[in-house]
Amino acid sequence: EEVLCGADAGFLDMGVVLRASSDPAVTADPRVLLNLRALEESSRVVSPSSSSSSFASSSSSGAQAHILPSMRRILTVCEEQLCEEEVFPQAVRYLDSYLSSFPVEKTHLQLLGAVCMFLASKMRETVPLTASKLSVYTDESVSVSDILQWEVTVASRLGWCLASVVPSDFLEPVLLALPFVRAPHLQQIRRLVHSYVALAATGKLHNSVTNTPHGLLG
């Protein structure tokens, strides 16, 4: 059961979701970029959709050999639910991290995608998506109980390291570090960068882009 303060509950009743904005006092600090790059290097993951992935050739189930970024239809859920921009790349991050270490049968890929979306929503979204809503998006081929059970499995196999770095995390520090970026252009730049990140994650850009360090995307 969700617990909300009275003010937040009132806004939700009106269909308004309160979201925090970035704090320039934090994001403008040059140490932020250095820390993000350090975290990125310490947790680099090679996408299983890339031919360089060991699972692409060694998995007994053959599932990883057929996993292409275009299969990540969780982007549709993010768009329709108006999720924050960081939710989708975070879900893809979990998906890549899991598949780079654990073989998964094709029949479980949809369930794994729903669980990664569920976890990413909890980490990045102000009002997380519910397991029941994600089940509906699978035409209820994935049950709520399956999502909840796999949530614990996926999180534990990822070592409970869920606060990982995604490309979107670099956006604000980079924008504030560029002296030629003007305030009137910020919104358009943000929109273009988020679109670029989504295209890279869904395989509409070359595979080599999906394995580019996050700090270089955008």
Structure report:
With about 220 residues, the protein is an all-alpha fold. The chain has one domain (about 25-215): Cyclin A, domain 1. It contains 12 helices and no strands. Helix 7 (about 110-125) packs across helix 9 (about 145-155) and helix 8 (about 130-135) packs across helix 9 (about 145-155). The protein is globular, with a radius of gyration of 18 Å.
In short:
It holds the Pfam family Cyclin_N. This protein has 218 residues and is mainly alpha-helical. The protein contains twelve helices and no strands.
Shape: globular
Superfamily (CATH H level) name: Cyclin-like
> From the coordinates shown, what is the CATH architecture?
Orthogonal Bundle
Q: Summarize the main sheet.
A: none
Tally of extended strands? 0
CATH topology, what is it called? Cyclin A, domain 1
Percent strand equals under 5%
- Strand pairing plus helix content: what structural class? mainly alpha
Terminal CA distance reads 39 Å
Helix content: 40-55%
Overall tally of domains: 1
Rg for CA atoms: 18 Å
Annotate the secondary structure layout.
Elements: H1 6-13, H2 24-27, H3 30-42, H4 55-58, H5 74-80, H6 87-99, H7 109-124, H8 131-137, H9 144-157, H10 171-177, H11 183-201, H12 207-210
Question: What labels describe this entry?
Answer:
Cyclin A, domain 1, 53% helix, mainly alpha, single chain, disordered N terminus
